[in-house]
Design goal:
Layout: H1 3-6, H2 8-18, H3 24-28, E1 50-53, H4 55-60, H5 63-100, H6 106-160, E2 164-167, H7 181-192
Parallel strand pairs: 1-2
Length: about 200
């Protein structure tokens, strides 16, 4: 989902409001000569009015994003094993019903078949709910990441003297040297790591 990327335009306005303006003298100094936030030892950011960020790569390649991806993959693996077990049980139950069809009274067999169908429908509903829960968990984690990243991105903007960060996917053509994705990943990793601290 690219909702986080779409919020970058809004972030640009927020960042512009909260960041201290860079004077002409400061802007003319090389990046290494200006003081960086001590808690965020990121690489030097290009000095440009506009910066570009690939929000998907920013999230997915960060320590935070990698941790969430690993946790979700482990949960999907567990749920897949549970799903396969339920399916095996249902297949066995279906086979048993087939063998009972000719030896069971129609009324009794109809009740057994209805109960089996109800079990199948319940299993499907449970799988759908589980899948939706995982999607919500992933989206929530992504939103938390971008919320925690906002001060870090604001610092990058302040250090570069830029006015805004644009989402890379919305830019038709740009110079590679205004892409701060790598610097942003390094900065958030230094600021809060995988998010468990």
């Amino acid at each position: 989902m690219r909702g986080a990327g779409k919020t970058l335009a809004i972030w640009a306005a927020v960042i512009a409001a909260v960041c201290t303006p860079v004077t002409a003298q400061e802007a003319s100094q090389p990046p290494a000569s200006r003081e960086l936030a001590p808690q965020i030892p990121f690489t030097v950011v290009p000095q440009n009015t506009l910066l570009i960020l690939d929000s998907d790569r920013f999230y997915l390649q960060s320590a935070f994003g990698r941790r969430i991806a690993a946790e979700l993959e482990a949960e999907r693996t567990r749920l897949l094993a549970a799903k396969e077990q339920v399916e095996a049980e249902l297949e066995a139950e279906e086979a048993r019903l087939v063998t009972l069809r000719d030896t069971t009274a129609p009324e009794d067999f109809a009740k057994m078949a209805d109960a089996f169908d109800a079990r199948v429908q319940e299993a499907r509903r449970a799988q759908t709910l589980t899948s939706r829960a995982l999607s919500r968990q992933e989206e929530t984690a992504r939103q938390q990441f971008f919320q925690r990243s906002l001060p870090v991105l604001a610092q990058l903007v302040a250090d570069s003297g830029a006015l805004a960060i644009l989402e890379r996917s919305t830019v038709f053509l740009s110079a590679d040297n205004i892409d701060i994705t790598d610097a942003a990943i390094e900065a958030v990793d230094a600021a809060f790591g995988d998010g468990t601290q």
